[in-house]
Structures are given as structure tokens and as C-alpha cells.
Amino acid sequence: MLFGAARLSSTRATRTSSVVQCKATSNNKGGAGAGGRKQQLWSPRQEKVLVSPLDALNKSDAITGLTLESFDGVSEVTTKQGELHQIEQAKPSESFARKMYAEDCEAAVNRQINIEYSISYLYHSMYAFFDRDNVGLPGFAEYFKKEAEEERAHAEGLIEYQNKRGGKVCLGALMSPITEFDHEEKGEALYAMELALSLEKLNYEKLVGVHRVADEAGDPSLTDFIEGEYLEEQVEAIKKVATYVSQLRRIGKGHAVWDFDQSLAN
């Protein structure tokens, strides 16, 4: 019985193969028959594209191409890219780093930059005065030169902070400082040092103003920057210059001024 079943299955397979061959021969003859028609070229419209390769198992037509279903993650990535495009983008003229930086704080920092430069400019004028040959106080000249460089460094520090917060640095015009510091009653040394004390106190007052603006705007970064980098140092500078003023008032305009000048040089 098993042998008979095998023969029957083989016979059916042979018949099926013959039928397929007959159909193929018939189709070829139809393509180039007596009518002399040329075989029709392949056209994309005649191609049957299946959505899934599993459907090919249930189709008896010839498979000319397959289109696989899209990966599920692609739609998720596309959605996230769309969300990124909705994020507010800065204009070309605006900073990408700016965040919670009030315009009042930006303006206050710019004012302080100009104050630091103005004080530095005046200290430079003092340095040039005491370095004259007819004044001859190199210790005072060197002291005011260092003070000028220090105030300029303060201005540059504020510029760096302004850029770090995304603000725009606006430098104002500087007035020409005075060039003569002679004083008939006090003498040039005491007069210049009292002027320096006034400048240091003014600078402290302006720094406190910047701190107040930052505090009102709720900007802890700016308040911490002014406190840590400027206010404490300014307090020490005021104390040092105030001590020099007291000593020079005791000395007067006599020869002791030269001794004081040597102490500044050392």
C-alpha cells in the first residue's frame, strides 16, 4: 500500500509539471504568434508589489518584487525630530548662551565696565605725572601704574562675564583725565592719593549698585560674581589707600615724601 501511494504521488507531480510546461509554451507562442506581434516589454504598472513577504505564499502569480514593511522605530524618530524643530531657536543676532539674564543686569554690567576703564584711564594719567623728570617720584609712578592695570583687568573680567551670560558689551566714550596734580597746600603726593581714595570709594559704590540690580532681578550668578570677585577686593583697596592718606597727612610736603616714595617702590 505504501508503494502504491508513492507511485500515485509521483504521477500527480508529473502531471502538474506537464501542465506548467504546457502553459509556459502556450504563453510564449502567444507572445510571438502568427500575428507577428512583438513580446510586450515589462512595465512598472504590471509589477505586483506585495506588502509583506508572507503574502507571497498565498499568491499564485509571479513575484516580481517585494516591499518590506517599515521599521516601527522610524516613525518614533521622525516624531522626535518634529518636536526638536518646535524648540524656540535664537536669532542670528542673539546669543545662544543667554538664559535668565535681565536687560537691567546687562546694562548695569556695561556701566561698570566703563567705570573701571575710566578709573584706569585716570590712574594712567597719575602714573605719567609722577614719572616726569621734574616730579621725580618713581614709587608713586609705579604704584599708580599697577592700579591702572588692575582696574583694566577688572573691566576685562566684566567683559568676559558679560559674554559668558550672552550679553552685549557696549563701551562708552572715555573723558580725558586731568594731567596736573599739583596742589599748593597739600602737595602733589597727598592730593593724588586722596583722589585715589575717592575713586576707590566711588568704584565700591557703583559695584554695590550692580549687586542691587542683580538682586532685584533675581540673578544669583551675577550677585555671587560681584561679591566674590570685586566687592571684597574693593574693601581691601579702600583700606590700603586710606592708610596711605593718613600717613601722607602726617608727613606733609617735606623731604619725608621722598622716603614714602621709596617705600612704595619697595
Order of helices and strands: HEEHHHHHH
CATH homologous superfamily title of the domain at 103-265: Ferritin, core subunit, four-helix bundle
Mind telling me which CATH architecture of the domain at 103-265 this is? Answer: Up-down Bundle
What's the gyration radius in Å? 45 Å
Q: What is the fold named in CATH at topology level of the domain at 103-265?
A: Ferritin
- Beta-strand content estimate: under 5%
What is the number of helices? 7
Low-confidence stretches: 1-40, 46-51
Shape: elongated
Biggest β-sheet strands, sense, barrel: 2 strands, parallel
Question: How many strands appear in the DSSP assignment?
Answer: 2
Helix residue percentage:
55-70%
Q: Report the mean per-residue pLDDT as an integer.
A: 79
Order of strands, main sheet, comes to 1-2
- Return the structural class: mainly alpha
Distance between the termini: 125 Å
CATH class term of the domain at 103-265: Mainly Alpha
Multimeric organization: single chain
Catalytic activity: 4 Fe(2+) + O2 + 4 H(+) = 4 Fe(3+) + 2 H2O
Protein name: Ferritin
Biased composition (Polar residues): 19-29
Main location: plastid
